[in-house]
Amino acid sequence: MRHTGEDAAHTPDTTSAEPVVRVRPAWTALLGLATLAVFMAFMTPIQILLPLQLEHIDPAGKHTALSWVTGAGALVAMVANPLAGALSDRTVSRFGRRRPWILGGALACTSRPRSSRCSAAC
Fold it and tell me: How distant, in Å, are the alpha carbons of 28, 50, 89 from that of 22?
């Protein structure tokens, strides 16, 4: 129930999905370092193995194939990442903004047959 009048200015809006507690700079720095470490561990094998796999498929056109694959991936990421972020920012649930999306992604990755799973995404 929302308050009206003078109480409305002093009563926090509990229906908002915006964070209400500030994060300390040290936590932000540690999160950044952890993210860097995860992406380095995740991307290094891809950067090495993808060109090798494309060379195995098409030795003559490996450079063109790598350009198309990485370009298509970047194009999809340019659309999908902001869209997913905007949707999760606007999610209001009793479990929070991110947990329903994390659960949905986990269920989507585990519900597919093992042969069709994309190891990069799941």
Answer: 11, 41, 17
CA distance linking residue 79 with residue 70, whole number of Å: 15
Q: Directed axis angle between helix 25-57 and helix 62-89, to 10°?
A: 150
What is the token pair recorded at 116? 């069709």
Which token pair is 99?
């947990």
- Residue-wise pLDDT tens digits, 55-110: 999 999 999 999 999 999 999 999 999 998 899 888 888 988 889 999 988 998 88
Task: Name the maximum alpha-carbon separation found in the chain.
Answer: 74
Three-state secondary structure readout of 5-32: CCHHHHCCCCCCCCCCCCCCHHHHHHHH
- Give the pTM: 0.55
